[in-house]
Specification:
This protein is mainly alpha-helical and 110 residues long. The protein folds into two domains: 58 residues, no CATH class; 48 residues. It is built from five helices and no strands. Helix 1 crosses helix 2. The protein is elongated and about 75 Å long. The N and C termini lie far apart (78 Å).
Length: 110
């Protein structure tokens, strides 16, 4: 390690790449870069776990997903809308509503 203080660059400091620049230069990474690198490692681990779940067949039935969506806070619903698209979300909600109608009609006939 160099005895020189870390060189701070407003463009790269506070990023994962800034962390690696410090390390390549033989410097101790600044606090902002260390924090960014830690965050990057955490997010990478989450993505790996998510992919592993998907690879192992973890899925949620459409009706259950629609129920989760309807119970979610609005900011989370907005994120789901952006991720899946409003057409798919609308189709899920319609399937949920149709299912609820079917269950209610079956109960009323019993």
């Amino acid at each position: 390690m160099s005895l020189q203080p870390p060189v701070r660059n407003r463009v790269t400091c506070g990023t994962n790449s800034g962390y690696h620049i410090h390390r390549r230069n033989g410097q101790k990474a600044c606090d902002d870069c260390r924090a960014a690198h830690t965050d990057y490692q955490r997010r990478t681990a989450v993505v790996k776990r998510s992919k592993k779940l998907i690879d192992n067949g973890v899925t949620v039935p459409a009706i259950t997903f629609a129920e989760l969506y309807l119970a979610a806070p609005v900011p989370l619903q907005d994120r789901i809308d952006r991720h899946l698209g409003t057409d798919l979300v609308d189709a899920l909600i319609k399937a949920h509503d149709d299912y609820i109608d079917m269950v209610q009609k079956a109960r009323s006939l019993s």
